[in-house]
Amino acid sequence: xxxxxxxxxxxxxxxxxxxxxxxxxxxxxxxxxxxxxxxxxxxxxxxxxxxxxxxxxxxxxxxxxxxxxxxxxxxxxxxxxxxxxxxxxxxxxxxxxxxxxxxxxxxxxxxxxxxxxxxxxxxxxxxxxxxxxxxxxxxxxxxxxxxxxxxxxxxxxxxxxxxxxxxxxxxxxxxxxxxxxxxxxxxxxxxxxxxxxxxxxxxxxxxxxxxxxxxxxxxxxxxxxxxxxxxxxxxxxxxxxxxxxxxxxxxxxxxxxxxxxx
Length: 262
Description:
Blueprint: E1 6-9, E2 28-32, H1 38-42, E3 61-65, E4 73-75, E5 102-109, E6 118-119, H2 121-131, E7 140-144, E8 162-163, H3 165-174, E9 179-182, H4 191-201, H5 204-207, H6 209-216, E10 220-223, E11 234-239, E12 250-252, E13 256-259
Parallel strand pairs: 5-7, 6-8, 7-9, 9-10
Antiparallel strand pairs: 1-13, 2-3, 4-10, 4-12, 5-11, 11-13
């Protein structure tokens, strides 16, 4: 069995302090200490007292309130719409084939694009030519933007680019990609940077166009990745198995890249 020479964590930690979500969906973690749980643990055993436990301590645990889209996570097709273009019900996170989530991966370096830029198929083709790579069906495609440079600051939510509808379909329809990922808050451009465009054209389909491309060709994408700048352009594997939540629109992941000897 081949063991990777390096494993790179592409996931962000989940905490109460780092701002990576709008206020209405920020997670809440309550930490319950060993001392606080000593009585609860002792109560399972008649006659046991908290003082009987090592140093009077029981188990520690945490009580977490969050959405399935907090932290580093992956969106299921159900997140984008209830049915696809043919009227078939979209898949929830527990219905997706696991072999989508451990695959060879490729990284696009789009850090040179300005915040709010909408990536087009020509941009994808130019990047593939630059890195000398030919996409294969089920490859995992990672998109490196400037957003992760602002991780930990309030600017994170308003930084990054958007993967346009046609660019997304270029990956999913033309090349058979089923899992993608980005280091920004979302696969599309930040809403704050699209407000002016929407005010001018009133085109609701444009503001979430990369997501809604999933109606035409269902696929999954990861959001809120980190450390993409440390990866090579290609020649590595990605593991991003989602937590199995029945009927859910997404699931949390511990996404890692694995580099092997040639």
